[in-house]
Amino acid sequence: MGSAVIIIPLSVHAGFFADVFNQPVVETSAAEASPLLSPVDVGLLAAQKNPDPLGGRGGAELLVDENALVSTGPIGEDEIALASTNSGEIRVYTVRAGDSLSMIAEMFNVTTNTIMWANDLTRATAIQPGDTLVILPIAGVRHIVKSGDTIESIAKKYEGNVEEILSYNQLASAEGLAAGDTLIIPGGAMHSAPARGNIAGASPVKSSGGNSVGAGLSHPAPGSVKSQGIHGYNAVDLAGSNGSAIRAAAAGEVIVAKSSGWNGGYGNYVVIKHANGVQTLYAHLSSLNIGVGSYVEQGETIGGMGNTGRSTGTHLHFEVRGGRNPF
Q1: Phi and psi at residue 302, to the nearest 5°
Q2: Dihedrals φ, ψ of 176, to 5°?
Q3: In a 10 Å sphere around its CB, with 0-12 CB exposed, 13-18 middle and 19+ buried, how is residue 168 labelled?
Q4: Whether pLDDT at 35 is above 70
Q5: What is the pLDDT of residue 45?
Q6: What is the DSSP secondary structure assignment for residue 149, as one 8-state letter?
Q7: Does the pLDDT value for residue 121 go beyond 60?
Q8: Residue-by-residue DSSP string for 36-89
Q9: Residue 302 near residue 288, CB atoms below 8 Å
Q10: For residues 217 and 324, what is the distance between their CA atoms, to the nearest angstrom?
Q11: What residues form DSSP beta bridges with 279?
C-alpha cells in the first residue's frame, strides 16, 4: 500500500514550529528586510581600496572666504589627511542627439566650464552628436573676489595661471572682476608647491624601465629625473630629453589620446585604464604612438616626452588616479 506525503506550507504553521523549538516567530515585512545587491548594483572595475590617503587623492575645490578655509574636498596634504579620498576618475562621453552641455555636466556632477576647459570648447553650443568629450575632474581652489583683488594677485596667491583662470571662468579680460565674484583657480594650491628644479639639480629616480616599482607600476620614463614631487592629481614631474620614450606603466586600454590642443593644460596626453580600475595619465607629450581603444602592454612605448600645454620645460607629468604613485 503506497504512502501519501502531505506538504504543509511552513508559513501557515509557523506558530507550531515556534512552539516546538520554543522560539518566537517575528513577522518581517518585505519593506523592512535588508536589501540585497542585484548584479546591476555591483560596481565593476572599481578602483582598489587604498590604505594611503595621499596615494589615491583626486581633487576638488576649496572654498576660501575671509581667510577661513572650509574644505569641500581633498586638496593639499593637510586637508586630505582629514577627508575621504576621491579617485578622480577620468571618463569619456559620446554626445547623443538632444544632449546639452549642462545636461552632461549634471550627469557627471561637474560644471559646464570643467567640460569646456578640458575639451577646448569656446561655447557651450559647440557640441554635436557623435562628439567625444573628456570628463576631466578639476583640482583647484574656489576664491571669493575681494576689493583690491586682481587676476594676477589671485593667480600668484594660489600658484595658478592667469590664462587658465580667464579661460576656465569664461572671462573676456582681467578687467571684469568685481567684489563678491566667485573664481575657480584650476590647479590652484593652498600651500607652496616644491620648486621645480632644473635637471642638473633634480633627484634621479632609481628605477629601470623593466622593473616594477610599488603598486605594480613600472617606470614611465626610464633615465629621467624627478623635477617635482607629488602635486595636483597625485602627479609627479619627470624631466628628460625631448622625444625620449614614454612607456606604459602597466598594461591596459587607452581611453584618451589627445595629439593636439591645450586640453586643460595637459597638452598632448594619454590616459590608460588598467584592469583594477586605476588610471595613469601621461601629459605634455611631443608625439603619440597609440590611439583610443588600443591595448598596450606594460613597458610599451606610447609616445615621446615633450613640452606641450602648460609646461615650463621638457618633462613628463605622470598621474596615478585611484592608486599610489610610487615615484
Answers
A1: -110, -10
A2: -90, 10
A3: buried
A4: no
A5: 32
A6: -
A7: yes
A8: ---GGGS-TTPPPP-S-TTTT-----EEEETTEEEESS--SHHHHTTS------
A9: yes
A10: 9
A11: 273, 321
Gap between the Cα atoms of 318 and 327, Å rounded = 9
Q: Side chain identity at 215, as an amino acid letter?
A: A
Q: Cα–chain-centroid distance for residue 287? A: 23
- What is the structure's pLDDT at 6? 52
What local confidence, expressed as pLDDT, does residue 141 receive? 86
Query: If you average pLDDT over residues 280-308, what whole number do you get?
Result: 97
For the chain, the C-alpha Rg in angstroms (whole number) is: 26
CA 59 to the chain's CA centroid: 7
Q: How high is the pLDDT of residue 31?
A: 40
C-alpha cell at 225: 629625473
Residue 199: closest CA among 171, 234, 224: 224
Instruction: Identify which of 232, 140, 130, 225 has the alpha carbon closest to the alpha carbon of residue 185.
Output: 140
Q: For 202-227, write each residue's pLDDT tens digit.
A: 445 444 333 333 458 999 999 999 99
- Write the DSSP symbol of residue 314: S
pLDDT of residue 233: 84
Q: Residue 172 has what DSSP assignment?
A: S
CA 98/CA 4 separation, integer angstroms: 66
| Rounded average pLDDT over 278-304 | 97
Whether the Cβ atoms of residue 102 and residue 112 lie closer than 8 Å to each other: yes
Q: Decide: residue 153, CB within 10 A, 0-12 exposed, 13-18 middle, 19+ buried.
A: exposed
